[in-house]
Amino acid sequence: MDIKHMRYFAAIVRHGSMTEASNQLYISQPTISKAIHDVETELGMQLFDRNRRKFVLTDAGKVFYDQCEEILRRHSELKNDLKNMVGMRQGEIKIGLPPIMDVGRLMGIVKDFHALYPEITFQLIESGSGTIETRLRQDAIDIGITVLPTEGEDFDAFNFLTEPMKLVVHKDHPLAGEDSIDLKALKDEHFIMFNEDFYLNEIITSACKNAGFTPKVVSNTAQWHFIEEMINAELGVCILPESVAALLKSSSVTVDIHEPVLKWRLGVIWNRDRYMNFITKEWLKFFQQYYE
């Protein structure tokens, strides 16, 4: 068995058929069929359930596929990693980040890192924390920036930002003149919230329930810019991290939340037991040193 056999097998699983896999790989179907047969003979077990119309993995096939994906990923990155280790600092870092953050801080780090490694590029992918964790598990991104703590135990992380969350209201709102409020004072307010994919939604909802009420949600969104416009239109109130609330350039004001004090913890996360390429290790080390 060699890397070619694993590539053929993974292609069949991804494309759902041997015919489509052979088309994508530009090789004959008998060649792929023989390769799979050779692998099954070597392993002494079937990888596909051939009693069904479609290719369905057996339990052994599922385990073999996971291992193939890991080996193929390492194989594809080997050349770049060797180049990096001898001084050719090239490649791309894919970072998942939430829309709910002061991106200016991140851009400062990216700028300084780029000055050291000008051949390294960044792909920044915005999404909620739940999606970021999923993409990390799927190896669709290298690093995630998300709310801590994470849902799973399969990530390593470090916290780089902890700050209070603030109530944001229109300047003409009755609470706009208050220095601070208790959360229970918002039981009759209409809330502008982020989508359920955002852990901020869960933090606020849970805190409100502990204060004795369920928030009345007037709108859900994935962009804090839309929240800003809805506050301008006096559609409701919102709770945001202090640094994000400070970015609002509207007719809104912020009010401290005294009881309970809501904290926002932002961190960098990565897969604990997965292979990490040289470039990503350098970025992670640089990020940690930057905040230390």
UniProtKB/TrEMBL annotation:
PROSITE patterns the UniProt entry points to: HTH_LYSR
GO CC field: cytosol
Listed InterPro entries: HTH-type_LysR_regulators, LysR_HTH_N, LysR_subst-bd, WH-like_DNA-bd_sf, WH_DNA-bd_sf
Region forming the signal peptide: none
Record keywords, A-Z: DNA-binding, Transcription, Transcription regulation
GO molecular function per UniProt: DNA binding; DNA-binding transcription factor activity
Keyword Glycoprotein: no
Ranges in coiled-coil conformation: none
All copies of domain HTH lysR-type, residue ranges: 1-58
Gene3D superfamilies the UniProt entry points to: 3.40.190.290, Winged helix-like DNA-binding domain superfamily/Winged helix DNA-binding domain (1.10.10.10)
UniProt record similarity statement: Belongs to the LysR transcriptional regulatory family.
PANTHER family linked to this entry: HTH-TYPE TRANSCRIPTIONAL REGULATOR YBHD (PTHR30419), NITROGEN ASSIMILATION TRANSCRIPTIONAL ACTIVATOR-RELATED (PTHR30419:SF8)
Name of the featured protein: LysR family transcriptional regulator
